[in-house]
Specification:
Endonuclease I-creI; 2 domains; 41% helix
Length: 251
Amino acid sequence: MYDIGTRRRALDLIAQGRSLNSVSRATGISRSAIRSWLTPPEPRRQDRPCFRCQEVPEGPEDPSAYAYLLGLYLGDGYIVSKPRQHYLMVTCAASWPGLIDAAEDAMRTVLPEPGISRMHRAGCVDVKSFTRHWTCLFPQHGPGKKHERPIVLEPWQRAVVDGHPWEFVRGLIHSDGCRTTNWTTRVIGGERKRYEYPRYSFTNRSEDIVRLFTSTLDSVGVEWRLANERNVSVARGASVALLDTHVGPKR
């Protein structure tokens, strides 16, 4: 480490027009050290303006990735924003490694610069991306649980979801939904037989998030019904086929 006086002397010699080699020989300071003092340090990556906190806010470069990540966040994600701690975390079941990879890929696509880590816990994996800018991208963040506060999309988010509804639905189902096979019995030719059929379900305690899910299903022509105030069921064959095409089971 060099003190301020040593650095100033070396920079004064450079200002006089002397070369790096000459100043290095005269001062005993390595050329790489002198070169680093001549180049202003770049701001930390997470401190650079994101696309929402610029002077003129923009939309995401990859809106489909953002729509998917928004669905994951509204389902199983939350943001920690403290003076020395800022990150987005999405919790994924450890039994679905494809979902874990998809969550990390979406974070890297939406904000490429922040560091990302995975924390393994019993039965699940927390995927974390570290930057204070996630609060810019997900203004639904706030104190308390999501179902205890209003969840309303901002106009720019609404435009992203309208343009990429299937990615939003996919993110919500991958976080708080599933594809299962149900069964019932029917009498056919006088004989009772077992009948199986696939079904998608989505469960969330927030009425606002459920409403966002069902209104988006309406926009893409998927028929649904409320099993109860927090559980949405999709069981009609044509609608299940649509979800199979655009969402599919977790992997």
